[in-house]
Amino acid sequence: QNFGGTVLGRVTQAGAVAIGSSTSPTNKLTVTDTTTNNVAKFNGTGVNQCTVVAGTGWSCSSDETLKTNILSISNGLGVITQLQGVTYNWKSDPNGTRQDGFIAQDIQKILPELVTTDSNGKLSLNKDGIMPFIVEAIKEQNGNLDKTNQQLSEQGIKLTSLSDDLLALTK
Q1: Is residue 15 within 8 Å of residue 29, measured between CB atoms?
Q2: What are phi and psi of 15, to 5 degrees?
Q3: What percent of the chain is modeled with pLDDT above 90?
Q4: What pLDDT was estimated at residue 1?
């Protein structure tokens, strides 16, 4: 409670925490803020931060003025073709809903900067870090398709010309 007696949060005996609500939490952590869609903010070093936006997901710092040593990704397709998507169940819930994703150890071999190790030696994956490679891979694929279409068009013109020549010879 604050000094005015307003309940600012609640902790249950089971250890569930509610912040910004006087009702008992239904999850281990429930954060409520009815004044904004920005429900929670996590600040890192400097001005790096991520905000949980209700109904949208995560929104993290990405402003160009916060970045240095910016380089274009040049081999998105080469990287993406090495990745192996998998479906799996968590060992803690082997009969539960199947998940789609990656194995951190596999990604670590290709994009080690996206994998971190916790204090227990377990790996975590920054899945959002794969997105720029996907974007560049799609752009590369489009470039390849454009080249192929141009070659097919040129071959079609040659075939039409050869067909016309052959037709003229048979007359």
Answers
A1: no
A2: 95, 5
A3: 44
A4: 53
